[in-house]
Amino acid sequence: MDKQLRRLETFVARGSDGKTYSVHGFEHLGRVDALQDVPEQWEPLGVAEYKLADGRPLREQGDGSFVVVGNGLELKRDGSVARGDTVGKHKRQVDHGAGKRPA
Predict the structure, then answer these.
(1) How confident is the model over 25-45, as a mean pLDDT?
(2) Three-state SS string across the chain, please?
(3) pLDDT tens, position by position, 7-18
(4) Model-level pTM?
(5) Torsion sign (Cα): 45, 50, 56, 62
(6) Using the 8-state DSSP alphabet, how is residue 103 labeled?
(7) Which of 55, 82, 56, 77 is nearest to 66 (CA)?
(8) CA 20, CA 97: separation in Å to the nearest integer?
(9) Percent of the chain, pLDDT > 70?
(10) Is the model more confident about 92 or about 40?
């Protein structure tokens, strides 16, 4: 069965290191090969995965938080920070997974 990913959501999460990270959620889709005359169709397979913007995989915890696979950094959704939001006159910086804040 052919598979592909479809982006479900993107959100900001705060790490246990105090930095903010861009998280992308995807669902797995499988191609339906039922009829030859029907254009390509895809259906959800019931599997979701989350990654940082730089591609590092995340493991979802039972409480809705995430852990970066390989280094154990804990992430929680940060509802107070929306990507690109401005707070007052200062724009918040979002770490897109590189581990460094832009200068």
Answers:
(1) 83
(2) CCEEEEEEEEEEEEECCCCEEEEEEEEEEEEECCCCCCCCEEEEEEEEEEEECCCCEEEECCCCCEEECCCCCEEEECCCCCCCCEECCEECCCECCCCCCCC
(3) 999 999 999 999
(4) 0.69
(5) negative
(6) -
(7) 77
(8) 9
(9) 71
(10) 40
